[in-house]
Design goal:
single chain; alpha+beta; 3 helices; about 45% helix
């Protein structure tokens, strides 16, 4: 059997750049073709800051978070029950 022999110049100036370009193209295609689910606000950010309560000058008195996943919103509200019951945190479905 004969083996494919490639010169060092061909490896440096043809093969290596071709591998880099194909790899880059595959990565870009993967992230470009990803789609968010039906009611998801974003693929990477399933939580959105809907509102903040302020008291002058810059004292934040409360937050309202919107979740795209209702089960996660319920779990988050249960884990932060004290903040929700005192009104410092509101949890809703976006």
């Amino acid at each position: 059997m004969s083996r494919l022999q490639v010169s060092e110049d061909a490896t440096t100036f043809v093969v290596a750049p071709a591998i880099v370009m194909v790899s880059l193209g595959l990565v870009l295609a993967f992230y470009r073709l990803r789609r968010k689910f039906s009611n998801q606000t974003s693929y990477y950010q399933p939580v959105v800051l809907k509102n903040t309560g302020h008291r002058w000058p810059a004292d934040i008195t409360g937050l309202e978070l919107g979740f795209t996943n209702s089960a996660y919103a319920s779990a988050f509200a249960a884990a932060n029950e004290h903040a929700v019951s005192t009104g410092k945190l509101k949890v809703s479905v976006a």
